Amino acid sequence: MTCHELIEGSIVEKDAATGEHGAVQRKLFVYIGPYDQRPGGRRPGGCWVATEVDVYFDERNTFRPDVVGWRRDRVPERPRGILVMAP
Predict the structure, then answer these.
(1) Most CB atoms within 10 A, among 1, 25, 71, 87?
(2) pTM higher than 0.85, yes or no?
(3) Buried b vs exposed e over 6-34: b needs ≥16 C-beta within 10 Å?
(4) To the nearest whole percent, how much of the chain has pLDDT over 70?
(5) What 8-state DSSP symbol labels residue 44?
(6) How are strands ordered across the β-sheet holding 2-7?
(7) How does pLDDT run across 46-62, given as a tens digit for each residue?
(8) Could you tell me which of 30, 58, 33, 53 has the C-alpha nearest to residue 43?
(9) What is the rounded distance in angstroms from the CA atom of residue 73 to the CA atom of residue 71?
(10) Domain 2-84, second-level architecture
(11) Parallel, antiparallel, or unpaired: how do β-strands 83-84 and 55-58 relate?
């Protein structure tokens, strides 16, 4: 399976993730997972965290980062669908 990103107006083909990639991504998500909750309490919280989602920056750039996050004080609801980043 291949994936694609739109970079500076060109479609760029990317190889599918490997097992090693998935293992590192999982470990990273476990590490930052405590931030993916409301702030307060014993854990840090205060962010929304997601993996492998399309993020639309503008008409020439759509990326699929391995892990992406937003601060809840700036984005009050969990982003859904194709995510649009304001300039």
Answers:
(1) 25
(2) no
(3) beeeeeeeeeeeeeeeeeeeeeeeeeeee
(4) 92
(5) -
(6) 10-15, 2-7, 61-63, 55-58, 83-84
(7) 898 888 888 888 888 88
(8) 33
(9) 5
(10) Alpha-Beta Complex (3.90)
(11) parallel
The dihedrals phi and psi of 78, each to the nearest 5 degrees, come to -55, 125
Strand partners, 58: 61
Q: Tokens 């476990």 label which residue?
A: 30
pLDDT at 86: 59
Tokens standing for residue 3: 């994936």
Rounded average pLDDT over 23-33: 86
Place of tokens 């291949």: 2
